Please model this.
Amino acid sequence: MVVNKYKIREQNESLILKSIIDHENISRAELSTLTGLNKASVSSITKTLLDDGLIFETGIGSASIQGGRKPIMLQFNPKAAAILSFDIGIDYLKGSLAYLDGTEILSIQKKRITVDAKTVMSLLEQAIEELSIKANVEIVGLCTAVHGIVNENSIVFTPYYDLDTIDLYQELTSRYDYPIFIENEANLASLGEYVFSLDSKTLVSLSIHSGIGAGIVDHGILRKGQYGEAGEIGHSILYPNGKKCPCGNHGCLEQYASNSVLYETLAKVKQLDYVDSSVVKELIDHADTETLQELNKNAFLLSVGINNIIAIYDPEVVVINSSIYRSNPALLSVVEHHLTSRIARKVLIQNSALGSQATLYGGIALCCQNFLNIRELKFHLQNSY
Ligand SMILES: [Zn+2]
Model:
């Protein structure tokens, strides 16, 4: 049982907790040296953390070189609490119940369902009930990913469904005690990469589906801009006076380089009724010339977008989260080949290791950062995707 489960941890408590998480196994004396806090403070803070069930004492460490007593070691207890994370797509709902370090307890997935303002709450309530039954510890946060623009937990604009017509945050907070978060899916995916997949301090993650969104993380903090619209890289203009885009501009990147544009183009070129990532993979396996040409074109156009991202945000890593790029890793080198500027060429470009689960992990990350009051949180996942 976690005492005072929703309280905001004070700064020194979070500092100690972060050191224990980062070092996996650490003594009180080492904590004092690392954090600069005196031994009495470390002793009092670790007592609180032990009482709250967030850490436990384990085994005996090695004695210091000066000799003396062997210290008791401390470890973080990821099973102290659980988190609920949801991804609400246009026609699906994915949910995960996980411990604080992202270890999954239970997941659910409902496909080909109608998601709109009328159905979303009953879908969520049912899913929360299904998952919560398996929670043998307190739930300390719930995060819901929405495919659209979200500002301060308020859904501002969802072009593909009408979730911007209800106050989902209010609906959820009136029903559940734990802290609730509503966030954009690409933002969450980037936070998932930051906490669970990469060691880097700054990154931009590109979520490429029907549109192209980006999440920007700087030392554990999501950079969302004044209105929650930072990272809308899909609406950066590639061709002035180009194709019309629903955003109101012409020639936006996502009208040329999104996965759905690639599928439509290939369906036309190959005279197929339907193309998705598995059809693309099949065409590549047969070394289909037209497909390879279209993919090279896609990688080139995407590299223009990535070049702009790098010029604006200067991240350590750019993560590409696209089913096409994940199943065809060779495309990454095409992107890299086109990133020739002095600014862009030192940035690491890589495929997402979390894939389609990145958004759910991002929800867990956001709740966990809040619960532990640690921004620069890093966990190594036991099972990677
Ligand atoms: Zn646009």
Notes: The first strand starts at residue 26 and ends at 27. Residues 311 and 343 are 7 Å apart (CA to CA). The mean pLDDT is 92.
